[in-house]
Amino acid sequence: MLFQGKKGLILGVANDHSIAWAIAQEIMNAGGVCGFTHLPDRPDDERQRNRRRVSQLTDKFENAAFLLPMDAQKDEDIRSVFDHTAKEFGKIDFLLHSMAFADRDDLGRDTIDTSREGFKLAMDVSVYTLLACASAAKPIMNPGGSIAAMTYFGGEKCVPGYNVMGICKAALEAAVRYAAYDLGPHQIRVNALSAGPIRTLAGRAAGVEEMLKLYEYMAPLGRNISHEEVGRTGAFLLSDASNGVTGEILHVDGGYHAMGSPGRLLDKVQ
């Protein structure tokens, strides 16, 4: 029960395929109590589809304490969520940031053709929100607390098709390092989890299907990763088991990131 007595926030669950949900399940199954946010629903959406997609997951867990709407581009929404969290929990021990967005039109363009407004939107949602949420968490996070973000190899190397989001992930990883420095004196850690391709809502938008075979052939383990593997590693970064780790980008990709040549993929093309 690694999370017994621990409380925290999970930001970015979209549905049951979300990496954030895989991590949250690991935490709750290990005794942790989680608060959740969801994308706000449109005023004319009587079915509240965004909320319902998440609530049908969280309703099954007694230690899912609350579910609140949050537009991470609005400072007042962030303040409201963290104020509610402070009232409900007092202090928190972990924060998972799993939010990213780029306009589909911009993702489909060559990177150099990204629109100015699309670039600002992608950077705001995918990068700035980590800093904003880390700042909001600082006053209510216990010493020894942990913040984790989600990144991808496309922030380290050029992955054609990932385009503007690759630039966002590079900036996010830099933000992790600077936030780790800022929060270090408060004994709060900040890390990022770099997962290999996995079938999620964001993954499908970024062309994950085309990547799965490539990783299977190139990764040293010779296979793709699972939601459960990413969930366990994300929970590790948010737990006391990783107390000495901060400013780290931890890869869960079967070793793909370590390769400097196509490796066994060459056997398939010769």
Automatic annotation (TrEMBL):
Protein name, entry field: Enoyl-[acyl-carrier-protein] reductase [NADH]
Pfam family name, one: adh_short_C2
Species assigned in the record: Roseiconus nitratireducens
GO terms of molecular function: enoyl-[acyl-carrier-protein] reductase (NADH) activity
Domain of life: Bacteria
Catalytic activity entry: a 2,3-saturated acyl-[ACP] + NAD(+) = a (2E)-enoyl-[ACP] + NADH + H(+)
Record PANTHER family: ENOYL-[ACYL-CARRIER-PROTEIN] REDUCTASE (PTHR43159), ENOYL-[ACYL-CARRIER-PROTEIN] REDUCTASE [NADH], CHLOROPLASTIC (PTHR43159:SF2)
GO BP terms in the entry: fatty acid biosynthetic process
